[in-house]
């Protein structure tokens, strides 16, 4: 085989599938994994004329065309730094390292600057789509030097998912922008998944439907405006039988982990002063789900509310409409964070294009995303996605169902933190009074923090009197 177009390090789920995807698209791919046995297994299982396994790093690097393009698909965090240090003495000026893992964007900014000083071009590339996406077309979010991007553009675009012949891959911005966009994508993914889980609780415990019926409901919804990858796989999951009888879903422990991207999104939003309460609620629910002993104790001690569930004929439709309204808020929150990040990190983020590359390949791919692209194409300075005409009409048409469903869940004692936070977000924006005048007064009372007045400009302090004995 002549010189290889690109080398991929990391032959686990993502790396092996991306490498095969590249090979399918005619690129010559060098494959390498720290544990050689894994490379051997991948190569033996997937013989491909364009893919070759390497069992030591110098030979792997020696096989690559200059400037070398080395893609890292390994565990995020320290392993990436360790590997960069191992690669550095073996690379030349102008070579390109592409980190396709879920690296923290601040690490990517640090690595980008560090490697720039050493003459190496570094790209932090968000990739979403899981195993299937990696193999047949993920959504790709490249961040790094715009000048160097053309060196990797054709490979990334070719292997990405496509919608109407458009690649779901677009240059995002400098240094950590690609990984930032992927991080928030995952935050939205958390909120989307949490909403669907709460929907399941409502259908099961208020509606009283069994798994097969819930599968049908999700499948039915997947034919309409809620059409999305996550709703589609949810329908499949509920339809899946267990060999031991019943459905697998009932055999799975009610406790979910996380690798960090959702939590990073929440922390980042708090730092920037952006309310992404639904994403944070989704993170917190996973955290709470892990407190299995504590939950058991609470189940034994906290009384279950006694409530007569009144199911009307419109219940399923009310849940569907609530899900749609709440989903709008989840995306509005995520895209508000993009808007703030663009200013904070000096990235020219194109929100419409970001939504467009999420239309296929990634975990949050949905019908809905073309509406977001349309909203930003009509007004690229949209303050908040909620204010787009289409989304606002949906919020207004669906909010009474959202209120009804949340009340039912609260009265039944079902936890619906994502739904509730969606409504809180709507009401906090909508309500003429939010109560912050009292907060200002309290801060001024105890700390002379001053306050603003409604009747004149400026800042004021008041000498508050003690009217009552404390
Ligand atoms: N799985 C998914 O659905 C998705 C994953 N991602 C991200 O893509 C990246 C790869 O994910 P995935 O394929 O799931 O693999 P894992 O995150 O499970 O990582 C396993 C790979 O990392 C390698 N590795 C670990 N430590 C080191 C090290 N110190 N030096 C060199 N290699 C090391 C392993 O090599 P070895 O075999 O020798 O241990 C193996 O190839 C991760 O950043 C992940 O967060 C992104 C989108 C989706
Ligand atoms: O990036 C991904 C999907 O887009 C990965 O599947 C990621 O692992 C999901 O996050 P978590 O493991 O925290 O649920």
UniProtKB/TrEMBL annotation:
Keywords: Gluconate utilization, NADP, Oxidoreductase, Pentose shunt
Binding site residues for substrate: 102, 128-130, 185-186, 190, 259, 286, 443, 449
Gene3D superfamilies registered for this protein in UniProt: 6-Phosphogluconate Dehydrogenase, domain 3, N-(1-d-carboxylethyl)-l-norvaline Dehydrogenase, domain 2, NAD(P)-binding Rossmann-like Domain
Substrates-to-products reaction catalysed: 6-phospho-D-gluconate + NADP(+) = D-ribulose 5-phosphate + CO2 + NADPH
Domain 6-phosphogluconate dehydrogenase C-terminal stretches: 178-465
PROSITE patterns in the record: 6PGD (PS00461)
Oligomeric and partner information: Homodimer.
Similarity comment: Belongs to the 6-phosphogluconate dehydrogenase family.
PANTHER family listed in its UniProt record: 6-PHOSPHOGLUCONATE DEHYDROGENASE
NCBIfam families found in the cross-reference section: gnd, PRK09287.1
Protein name: 6-phosphogluconate dehydrogenase, decarboxylating
Annotated source species: Pectinatus brassicae
């Amino acid at each position: 085989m002549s010189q290889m177009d690109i080398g991929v390090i990391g032959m686990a789920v993502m790396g092996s599938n991306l490498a095969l995807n590249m090979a399918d698209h005619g690129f010559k791919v060098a494959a390498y994994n720290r544990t050689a046995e894994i490379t051997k297994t991948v190569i033996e299982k997937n013989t491909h004329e364009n893919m070759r396994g390497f069992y030591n790093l110098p030979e792997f690097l020696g096989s690559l065309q200059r400037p070398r393009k080395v893609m890292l698909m390994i565990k995020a965090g320290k392993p990436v730094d360790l590997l960069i240090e191992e690669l550095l003495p073996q690379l030349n000026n102008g070579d390109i390292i592409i980190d396709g893992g879920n690296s923290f964007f601040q690490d990517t900014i640090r690595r980008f600057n560090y490697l720039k000083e050493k003459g190496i071009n570094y790209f932090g590339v968000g990739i979403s789509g899981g195993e299937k996406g990696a193999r047949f077309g993920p959504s790709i979010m490249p961040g790094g030097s715009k000048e160097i991007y053309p060196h990797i553009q054709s490979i990334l675009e070719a292997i990405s998912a496509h919608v109407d012949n458009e690649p779901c891959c677009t240059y995002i911005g400098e240094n950590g922008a690609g990984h930032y966009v992927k991080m928030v994508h995952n935050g939205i993914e958390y909120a989307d998944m949490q909403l669907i889980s709460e929907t399941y609780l409502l259908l099961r415990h208020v509606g009283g439907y069994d798994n097969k019926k819930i599968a049908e409901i999700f499948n039915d919804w997947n034919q309409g405006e809620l059409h999305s990858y996550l709703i589609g796989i949810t329908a499949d999951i509920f339809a899946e039988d267990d060999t031991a009888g019943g459905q697998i879903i009932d055999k799975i422990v009610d406790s979910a982990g996380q690798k960090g991207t959702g939590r990073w999104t929440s922390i980042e939003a708090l730092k920037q002063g952006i309310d992404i309460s639904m994403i944070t609620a989704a993170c917190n629910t996973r955290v709470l789900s892990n407190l299995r002993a504590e939950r058991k104790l609470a189940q034994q001690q906290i009384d279950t509310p006694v409530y007569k569930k009144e199911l009307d004929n419109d219940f399923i439709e009310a849940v569907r409409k609530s899900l749609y309204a709440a989903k709008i808020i989840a995306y509005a929150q995520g895209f508000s964070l993009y808007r703030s990040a663009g200013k904070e990190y000096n990235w020219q983020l194109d929100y419409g294009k970001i939504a467009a590359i999420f239309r296929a390949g990634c975990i949050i791919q949905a019908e809905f995303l073309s509406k977001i692209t349309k909203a930003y194409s009509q007004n690229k300075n949209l303050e908040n996605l909620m204010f787009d005409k289409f989304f606002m009409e949906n919020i207004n048409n669906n909010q009474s169902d959202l209120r009804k469903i949340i009340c039912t869940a609260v009265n039944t004692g079902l936890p619906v933190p994502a739904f509730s936070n969606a409504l809180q977000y709507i009401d906090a924006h909508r309500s003429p009074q939010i109560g912050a005048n009292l907060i200002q007064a309290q801060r001024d009372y105890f700390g002379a923090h001053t306050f603003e007045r409604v009747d004149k400009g400026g800042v004021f302090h008041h000498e508050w009197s003690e009217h009552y004995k404390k």
